[in-house]
Specification:
This protein is mostly helical. Helix content is about 70%, strand content about 0%. The chain has one domain. Helix 5 packs antiparallel against helix 7 and helix 6 packs across helix 7. The N and C termini lie far apart (about 40 Å).
Length: about 80
């Protein structure tokens, strides 16, 4: 139990990341494309690295809202990887 507590901070999500996830879901529900939303200054300023934006796209609530296929395509674009 003590070991779990020591490393629990590694798996906690920040409040800022939570707000960005809510923003992405809200904007997508309004009809905007995911790639366009990820280019917003709001998202870019709060998730500055490609790894942070890729992690955002792995969140279950984002996957559910935008669809796993769109999230995977956007993640590949963000990280510079090619989709199979």
């Amino acid at each position: 139990m003590a070991l779990k507590d020591i490393f629990s901070f590694l798996f906690q999500r920040s409040a800022g990341e939570e707000r960005v996830a809510q923003y992405v879901i809200r904007e997508h529900d309004r009809g905007r494309r995911l790639a366009e939303i990820l280019e917003d200054r709001y998202v870019q300023n709060r998730l500055q690295s490609p790894e942070q934006r890729a992690r955002l796209l792995d969140r279950p609530e984002v996957l559910h809202a935008v669809g796993s296929d769109k999230a995977e395509a956007a993640k590949a674009e963000v990280t510079g990887a090619t989709t199979p």
